[in-house]
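Reading a protein record of the kind used here takes only a little practice. Each token is a code from a learned vocabulary of local backbone shapes. With that in mind, consider the following protein and its fold in token form:
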Amino acid sequence: MDHQTESEILAVRDAPLDLEPEEFRALGHQLVDRIAGYLAELKQRPVTPAGSPAQVREALHAGRPLPDSGSDAGLTLHETADLLFKHSLSNGHPRFFGYITSSAAPIGMLADLLASTVNPNCGAWKLAPMATEIEAQAVRWIAELIGYHSDSGGLMVSGGNMANFVGFLAARAAKIPWDVRKAGLGGARKKPRVYTSAETHTWIQKAADLFGLGTDAIRWIPVDKQQRIMIPELRRRIQTDEEQGEHPFLVVGTAGTVSTGAVDPLPEIAAICRERELWFHVDGAYGAVATAVPGAPADLAALREADSVAVDPHKWLYAPLEAGCALVRGNDDLLRAFSYHPTYYHFDEDALNYFDFGMQNSRGFRALKVWLALRQTGRQGYLRMIGDDIALAKQFHRLVTAHPELEALTQNLSITTFRYVPPDLAERTLEGDVQEYLDRLNQALLSRIEKSGEAFFSNAVVDGKFALRMCIVNFRTSLKDIEELPDLIARFGRAVAKELPPASL
């Protein structure tokens, strides 16, 4: 095309991605109406669809090529809502008890739309002035909620893994006695060592792998009958490593383990770290926000003594995914671990530039959904909702204990573990063949309940027993939901036992 034609075309540019304001308004109203309808009928829906991976791919027409021409935005939105509503696990369902994934707060859904509209890059203050200050306030409010230092440093990240990674790297920069960011770990004469319980989430293995230590650097400390790290063994292992010329530098305590919700003896860990001048990190992704809830484990109060804490707002603060938060005693701990200033950066160093405090440069506005929910709900509202979740889990534990076909195993925070035991085997559960059969029976039971769509549990292994695990981080769950569960589980348990008889027993 000649220059004149090109100029004419650019003067009346038609971008296929754009929407006129009235069309955007109409589509937005339609979509919000559909979402409101979905939320209204959530209780009547199955918790999860029974479709196979092949069926889901077929519904999507997964094999189709990239379209050459675009399609109508309204039709595309409508079809996509159908696909998601029909073929998704509904973790907002009142009977979703699997994993530690919460019901998403409605204000958080709207927050994500608002954040996408402004589309700030929260890596630098200049690119996101108000968003940066909102994030800083949200981080401070989270610290206040869990009883951490209100003048602490921190930032929002994608989730628990990343929040724990931030703490790990802050510890590495602070406690390795050479410039590890420049020289690395390859020439270390004293090998760095990390200490944590056998119940710690797999983020610790990823961190040791990704950040140069290798997984052999992890000292897995056994747990007691309550699934809590054994303090005498922790002390012994640190002492042994020091005597052998190793370099202990980090101890990780857990405030709410994934399997059972156990809280490590955090005050004792803090004392060891002070005595040995080690970095004390707490994985509080799940349980940290319960610190101020009446009746919560007293050990949670020692979060304040940690050098760093990981918190996951998309767990027990009910934020939509993704939303994690890393807290440290001061921003200097983060600057030491992450800050670089290449020549092409021309940002005000007196302002809060989050690219200095974490692994990302370009960063989305994750904080808005957390900040809005904290404003809408307030401290007392959150403590009440979290307390309700804990109370419901305890009530479920009592109901399971009283049921003749169920065996309660553990109860911590809002997690209860249990298993189905046929009445004729109730007095024989310690026998090896019976144990093996009960494991197979409960594995099959877990799948049966999931496929029914009536409830959704996950699993744990407790003292070598395969257990069903129910976790409540769900403001939609009611007492009625809990009271109906034991008979529902027993009904499916009896059906599975008939299909899987203990022939050799």
Q: What stands out?
A: Residues 15-44+49-88 form one domain. The chain has a mean pLDDT of 94. Residues 367-402 form the longest helix (36 residues). The two ends are 84 Å apart (CA to CA).
